[in-house]
Model the fold of this input.
Amino acid sequence: MGWYGVHIVICDDESIFLEYFKELLVRDSFEKGLDITVTAYTCGEELLAAYDERLVSDMDILFLDIRMGGMDGLEAAKILREKGCGCLIIFLTSLEEYARVGYEVKAFRYLLKEQVDRELGRVMDACCLELGTEDYFVFSYERRSYQVRKQDILYFESRKRLVFLYTASGQYRFYQKLDVLEEQLSGSGFLRCHRSFLVQERYVRSWKENVLWLENGTEIPISRTYEKAVNRRLMLRME
Done:
């Protein structure tokens, strides 16, 4: 399983926290190069109804508030487990003592709301390992197979029939058309800026009309063909 449309569900009755947490999830997934879908609910009853209607039966990770009005998170989790839901459950709580409950529903982790901004990344890393969802780019060259984590790729450069893959620690080469590669990596955070270059969007530090710079100082050309699309994508990212 790769990080392709991983379904994350949040259930919390505090609307302000809910929106804040969604923003943190999107930011963390962007930094990791993860492709996620986020669905949110404001009570346990709503979550269970959605599960019964098969709207969230494919969820991979559930962030579930323990203390909610009406049905609490523990009760909702027990019912989900009885229905055969096998997703990873991370309980959201504001109280330290609640970190001792949840063994009955096989809770995967606990996340204190006061620490969510600094602990979410660590929890998502743990989910990644548990689900076996590290996303690798796999290719072959001269009868040898290679795999490189997509989040480690800085950019690709096409030179005639060869494509060069650059990471912070080195480079690789393989045969492929960049158009095919662009399609293959669609949704993984890569940006086409030139007929010969495909860059990892999150490593772009700055840009102007005909050039962009990566965080390591590498300068990549932007062709007129892609100038408007690049500017639109990067401006959207800045916002």
In short: The chain is about 30% helix and 35% strand. Helices lie at 15-32, 44-52, 73-82, 116-131, 178-184, 224-238.
